[in-house]
Amino acid sequence: MQFVATEHQHRRLNPLTGQWVLVSPHRMQRPWSGQQEKAQLNEQPVFDPTNPLCPGVKRPNGNVTERYESTYVFDNDFPALLEQVPAPPSSDDPLFQAAAARGNCRVMCFHPKSNLTLPTMSTTEIGAVIDEWIKQFNELSVKYAWVQIFENKGASMGCSNPHPHCQIWSCSFLPTEPQLKQERLRAYYATHERPLLSDYVDRELQRKERIVIDNPDWLVVVPFWAIWPFETMLISRNNNKRINDLTQLQRQNLAKTIKELTIKYDNLFQCSCPYSMGWHGAPTGPEHAHASSAHWTLHAVYYPPLLRSATVRKFMVGFELLAMAQRDLTPEQAAQRLREVSGTHHYLDK
Ligand code: H2U
Asked: H-type helices in 232-330, by residue range?
């Protein structure tokens, strides 16, 4: 029998992390009688006086959110990382290792209106978000080894607040995922003298099997090794290392690309599509300021949980927690669905 990727289960390697994913496309046929999510629709009021992220609202801790008109950043009232905390004692025991973790956490509102999301904002408004990401990154990267910009969109991805916003957590250390990427990208560069993701972009452009969006500055693909059903990577085609390397033109193109991609996500299952997304680029801070970043390529990752519809999601549970990640439809099938779905928003079009 000949191997057919859409029919025969197989494993794929993520070269960025060294982890494998099991692809079992034949499982898409199975019936689903498990949990159904509540479909997320954009039904927020423009302003909610009880929502702490809305302009002018007093937050539970007594601070007042400013009456902002574009983006707005404030220190998280419940930060996971603080600057001034004692470090744990060092230990020689390999079974009880602990290390210092310092940092800060900020919340960044994208827009004063609660009823908007990135796909329903204008490219100019998304441009303001990108400019604010860069402003924050410029400030925080001087001090911190890792500045993680991330957005949880939708309650099913842990978003605790129905208002367009993201978070920025800055760390005095490299967290696990960036540390893995740092090692793998560096090793690839040592052997091939090329950034892994530049080679990957070239290969994806040749193969044309997993491309979702392609423009001169950005490539969006469902990666060969995607874990989540409709996971994508948005990769710089200009060998950018960090988000603050971007030129004005690259920022403008990024705003268009983000809008197009997030509209496609909303249109895929005709809902306000939940996801977690975030930016990865070369590490920063005094420790990395003079180290080579030649092996890095700036990229964002999008992890939407939906599998079959607005109400049926992928669960990362038993086998995934105990053995390895597993997916059903192939990345090529997912890319084709995303490529073919309209770039005009399903309800803004009405
Ligand atoms: P999420 O929607 O991704 O949970 O982000 C919202 C963040 O906003 C969350 O980390 C913070 C929460 O701690 N927050 C405040 O700092 N103050 C508030 O009054 C509400 C929420």
From this structure: 248-268, 285-288, 318-322
Least confident span in 5-19, 122-136, 228-242, 336-350:
336-350
Average of per-residue pLDDT values in the chain: 95
Pocket-testing residue among 59, 64, 76, ligand 1, by greatest number of atoms within 8 A of Cβ:
76
**Alpha carbon nearest to ligand 1 atom 19, residue:** 59
pTM of the model: 0.96
**Ligand 1 pocket: which of 48, 53, 151 to mutate (most atoms within 8 A of CB):** 53
- Does residue 289 have a pLDDT over 90? no
CB of 167 sitting under 6 A from ligand 1: yes
- Burial of residue 44 (number of CB atoms within 10 Å: 0-12, 13-18, 19+): middle
Spell out the domains of the chain, with CATH numbers in brackets: 10-27+37-83+101-340 (3.30.428.10)
From 138, 104, 151, 112, select the one nearest 258 (Cα to Cα): 151
Distance CA(215)–CA(297), nearest Å, equals 17
Percent of the chain with pLDDT over 70: 98
Active site residue 192: no
CB distance 62 to ligand 1 below 6 Å: no
Closest listed residue to residue 277, CA positions, set 148, 150, 166: 150
Q: How confident is the model at residue 348 (pLDDT cuts 50, 70, 90)?
A: low
Residues 6 or more apart whose Cβ sits within 8 Å of residue 125: 70, 110, 111, 116
